[in-house]
Amino acid sequence: MMLVAWYAGKYENKTVDLIRYIFPVSLIMFWYPETSYLNDCFFPVFDKYFAAADSCLFGCQPSMEFSRVAPWRFFSEIMAFGYFSFYLTITFTFFYFYYKFDKKIYEKVSFIFLFSFFVFYVIFIILPVEGPQFYFAYDKVPAGFLFYKLLTIAQYYGERGTGAFPSSHIGISLIIIFIFYKYSRKILYVLLPLFVILALSTVYIKAHYVVDVVGGFIIAPILFWLSFKVYKKLEHRVK
After folding, report:
1. Can you tell me whether residue 103 is helix, strand or coil?
2. What's the distance, CA 173 to chain centroid?
């Protein structure tokens, strides 16, 4: 990463620039499961409290009941697609800003992503919550089709008992919406329906408690604002 950054600063090369910004972002998929090795350094998992909060608010466990009242394969496939769209949306966002905007804006968007993800990861380490799929491991998601299988593979290799609260899927997706609202509002017409499906899917596939989703909604605007503030300070120092 340091070598590529040095080369990109010394020579003007669009391909090297792309690698410079894509490579660190691609590592978020590697760093996420790493938090599972660190999230018991400070406290034991807090799932019993988060599960109790959902029970207190709804009189049941929504993450368990949702799939029971909607066990149809086509609906499970829609939910799997919604959850999987998180990865597709991130990929689309980076390439869209890389090809549509100048380097300064693309650099800022990359910083917002990485800064927000790293804050989430620090929270996951300090506040360990595994999520319903691990806490209620006996309850499985109804089978779907293609995206259900893709999601199953992604979860098998990348999912660990960590990172449930606050929901980074909700938080980062909402930050993406804020970014497009600021720079390219026409894309919102596609992203907003996907975001609604994603929000439902996080509970349906048992990745999150409802309180995790609420946490994602609350922290997203804070991180969006904070990342801009930090970026401006760093940008001023570089100049």
Report:
1. helix
2. 6
